[in-house]
Amino acid sequence: MKTMAIIGAQWGDEGKGKITDLLAEKSDLVVRYQGGHNAGHTIWVNGKKTVLHVIPSGVLHSSCTSVIGHGVVLEPENFLHELNKIKHITNISPENLKISSTATVITQFHKLLDGVRESQGPEKIGTTGKGIGPAYEDKISRRGIKVKDLLDKDTLMRRLGVGYSEKAILFKHLYHIDIPAIEDEVERLYKLGQEMKDYICDTFSLIDKSLSEGKKILYEGAQGILLDIDYGTYPYVTSSSTSSSGIYSGAGIPHHQLDEVIGVAKAYTTRVGEGPFPTELFDEIGQTIQLKGNEVGATTGRKRRCGWLDIPLLRYAIKCSQLSSIALTKLDILSNLSELKVCYAYEVNGKRVDCAYPGINLYQAKPLFKEFTPFKDDFSDSKTSKELDQYLSFIQESLGIPISIYAYGPDRQQVIFKKKLF
């Protein structure tokens, strides 16, 4: 096995960073292929917490190279801030951290536009306000700035000027706020580019060469499939391709296919921000899961909405991202609850629905639950109770793919591998 992907199988926050960190130890490259610093991967090592936003989760292993692919939108100031924090806990250098020269840059204009739309716009999406969506807009409309543009002032002025006049009118006459002068933004970005230049390279060629040499490559996704710009619960989605298809467009996998696609899912379901959530809990059980699971966004600090595991949504995630196995995380949070349920199907307009296809109105979906005897495992050894085995078996049989990893705590050691990976 030479290529593997870690994909969020729900609405993000499933514990992908932890799984990536574990598998990175046996990888040569760990590649982030989409999103920006609106993601937050939390990794615990020997009781110490590390939160990553745009730097790949393989960075804690000096034996592998972490790669930020061209499908990522990069905010240079945030990247350098994160880099300086990471340098205090791991050996990191331009030798083992690479940024794609063709990744799109997030500017101050993008962040301002993102924030003002969320605060003044007619529809609340639940965006983090970090400029992700507007940066992708400029990329698609061919007005974007690439990382390589930061290294030349004339190029930077020309590229930034392409959309500046329109943005200036928009901010002044629609949103009534001031924006920085274009000359100031050019100076700021150029200075940041000089600080980043040693990390910038042609990452597509790096990946191509590594694959031809038989190296092991781990692709790391941010957010989750249900937030995918095409497959997700639109419009309450992110602005990039979070599914496995985003790997081909956002990083590259020349002349190869993915050998394994692991979908990471919590043993329950959470989401941040707006949008439909069929199994959401509004009772004491939901509050218990939120508190016990510390369900607070690593990037935003917002409380996550919590609910029971949703099989129809996972079935859909498996289909649209070609998942080959599941990594089930946070099993410990469900231990010792007073009740335990799984949504196995929906009822929509009087009919049973087994898969949450895009044509299904999730606001109208009534979840059908199967109740289980709650388990009380403390995970102090490798043995599992009959009650937990029944819960896991039902999930695996309902999804039709194996559970390759169980996680029952935040630390590296609190994981059981059911399948050999890498």
Structural descriptors:
single chain, 422 residues, alpha/beta, Adenylosuccinate Synthetase, Chain A, domain 1, Adenylosuccinate Synthetase, subunit A, domain 2, Adenylosuccinate Synthetase, Chain A, domain 3, 3 domains, ten-stranded mixed sheet, four-stranded mixed sheet, 12 helices, 20 strands, 32% helix
Give a written overview of the molecule.
By secondary structure, the chain is an alpha/beta fold. It has 3 domains: 3-100 and 198-260, Adenylosuccinate Synthetase, subunit A, domain 1 (Adenylosuccinate Synthetase, Chain A, domain 1, 3-Layer(aba) Sandwich); 104-195, Adenylosuccinate Synthetase, subunit A, domain 2 (Orthogonal Bundle); 265-417, Alpha-Beta Complex (Adenylosuccinate Synthetase, Chain A, domain 3). It is 32% helix and 20% strand. Helix 3 crosses helix 4 (132-140) and helix 5 (153-175) packs across helix 6. The radius of gyration is 22 Å and the shape is globular.
Structural class, please?
alpha/beta
Helix content: 25-40%
Describe the sheet with the most strands.
Answer: 10 strands, mixed
Number of domains: 3
CATH homology superfamily of the largest domain: Adenylosuccinate Synthetase, subunit A, domain 1
Q: How large is the count of helical segments?
A: 12
> What is the 3D shape?
globular
Number of strands: 20
Terminal residue distance: 6 Å
Identify the CATH class of the largest domain: Alpha Beta
Contiguous runs where pLDDT drops below 50 for at least 5 residues: none
Q: What is the fold named in CATH at topology level of the largest domain?
A: Adenylosuccinate Synthetase, Chain A, domain 1
Mean pLDDT: 93
**Rg from C-alpha positions?**
22 Å
In CATH terms, what is the architecture of the largest domain? 3-Layer(aba) Sandwich
Strand line-up of the largest beta sheet? 9-7-5-2-10-1-11-15-19-20
* Content of β-strand: 15-25%
